[in-house]
Amino acid sequence: MQSSEKRVVFNQLVTQIHLCKMCPRLAGRTRVFSDKNGSLDAKVLFVAEAPGRLGADQTGIPLYGDQTGRNFDVLLSSICWERAEVFVTNALLCNPRSESGNNDKPQMAEIRNCVRFLEKTIDIVAPRIIVPLGVKSLDALAIIEEHNIELRRHVGQDFAWRGIRLVPLYHPSPKVCNIHRSLNLQQDDFRRLSDLLINM
């Protein structure tokens, strides 16, 4: 797809997403999908889980504006990558909240509603590598095309998926960094990711 055609199709997708009313719980939430997501010619596409209440829901930029976003920027900087070089999106494009108003996990029904947008994004960007950040992102990709990848077993490994390399990594949220995989270990993961792209 030529760059001019990509832009037209992408703009159409942005409009579709901003008009979507499929998920009752997400009514009135910011649809975090626009030119702010990154380059349509990116070689690497990151798929996080959902926009954060204090970050992307307010800024309109995925993985930006809160501690998770700051961690993600640290990881990118550690391998000398910039946001303008990559594309960042989410399995769920609106911020899910619990009854108390805090961030909540995306429900599978919501991800199923949103996955058509993710599939179209992948088709437009046509990245060489997709990096699902977290289990929910892996689940979303499995809806598009089945895989047997498990985050704990396969973190940092690369797999063939729809003619693209799929590299599952942990989400850079503070909770994950404190409990499941430290920021230092995640920096090691990102270095291996950079090496993979260099050697492709």
Structure, briefly:
The chain has 200 residues and is of the alpha/beta class.
Describe this structure in words.
- The chain is an alpha/beta fold.
- It has a single domain, classed as Uracil-DNA Glycosylase, subunit E.
- Helices cover 44% and strands 10% of the residues.
- It is built from 8 helices and 5 strands.
- The protein is globular, with a radius of gyration of 16 Å.
Identify low-pLDDT runs: none
Biggest sheet details: 5 strands, mixed
CATH architecture group name: 3-Layer(aba) Sandwich
**If you compute it from the alpha carbons, what radius of gyration comes out, rounded to the nearest whole angstrom?**
16 Å
Tell me the overall shape.
Answer: globular
Strand content bin:
5-15%
CATH topology: Uracil-DNA Glycosylase, subunit E
Topology of helices and strands:
Blueprint: H1 3-19, E1 44-48, H2 56-59, H3 67-78, E2 87-90, H4 108-125, E3 129-132, H5 135-144, H6 151-154, E4 159-161, E5 164-166, H7 174-179, H8 183-198
Parallel strand pairs: 1-2, 1-3, 3-5
Antiparallel strand pairs: 4-5
Helix pairs in contact: 1-4, 3-8, 4-5
